Amino acid sequence: MSEKFVGYFRFLEACDAGGCPVCRCLRDESRSHIDALLYEQVTDPDTRRDVRASWGFCNWHTWMLLEVENSLFGSAIIYEDLVRLLLERVRRFADRPRRRAGWLGWLDRRRRLPRLVELYRRRQVCPLCVSAADTADRCLTTVVKFFDDPDLRAAYARSDGLCAPHMLRALEVNAGDSGARELLDRTVAKWTRFREDIERFVGKHDYRNREPFTDAEAASYMRAFEMMAGAKGLFGNDLGAACDGQRYRRRSGPRGRPRTDRDVAEQRVEEEDAR
Ligand SMILES: [Zn+2]
Ligand SMILES: [Zn+2]
């Protein structure tokens, strides 16, 4: 019991809430975290330093501020500070240096704005995401560890199962654990049923069909969205990575790397497997 941190019981509850239970836990925990932060830590120096270091919260957590009741005043205090800090940073790097003239001044001006961009790129990770990632890993580790528990098995059987990003993360943080293998088997069984539902949903769109959609078929595409991408907003998007990799847009390997002979060979093996 002592090993089952509070997240275990939240996971059991989340299994009945629909969608990926870990995504649900993280969404609920983030809202509670924001709630506590806005009511108790708005003026806390450590909290303010972390939020400043990350240039504010990530997109997901920023817009989540609107979902927390009575959050506007606390949010406004934090964001007034962040907007002021951004303006200071831009001015510091964009203003022309007064003391240097000639080519030294020209060189300095050329270097300053890229340094501002570099500062932004090296900003800290959103502190709420750091906390959420830690919760996700602890939750996935506990679920794998106690997967024999009858309550957990029954709750997971009722749930929609983990999304693909969380299932793969469970395998990563519990590599070699037999519980992880069992969790995968049970999750794949759920995914297989989703695929059958969505296949029937697509099939029934034939104009000759007169058969109504079942509830599972009508919900199948939403389940497929969450299964593949996680809950809405939770894992962000690939815009940043796409911008970083845009030089290799035409011929790129995994993660935007230039395509190597090995990438080509691996792709050939995958294509042969798929036949
Ligand atoms: Zn998830
Ligand atoms: Zn975040």
Sketch the topology as an H/E string, one letter per element: HHHHHHHHHHHHHH
> Bound compounds, please?
zinc ion
Radius of gyration: 24 Å
Bin the helical content: 55-70%
**Could you name the ranges where pLDDT drops below 50 across 5 or more consecutive residues?**
none
Number of strands: 0
Distance between the termini: 49 Å
Strand content: under 5%
Biggest β-sheet, characterized? none
What is the typical, i.e. mean, pLDDT?
Answer: 85
Q: How does the helix and strand content classify structurally?
A: mainly alpha
Number of helices: 14
**What's the shape?**
globular
How does this model look, in words?
With 275 residues, this protein is mainly alpha-helical. Helices cover 67% and strands 0% of the residues. It contains 14 helices and no strands. It has helices spanning 6-14, 21-40, 45-53, 59-64, 72-94, 102-121, 127-145, 150-158, 164-173, 178-203, 215-218, 220-229, 239-244, 261-274. Helix 2 (21-40) crosses helix 7 and helix 7 (127-145) packs across helix 9 (164-173). One zinc ion (ZN) binds next to helix 2 and helix 9. One zinc ion (ZN) is lined by residues 57-58, 60-61, 126, 128-129.
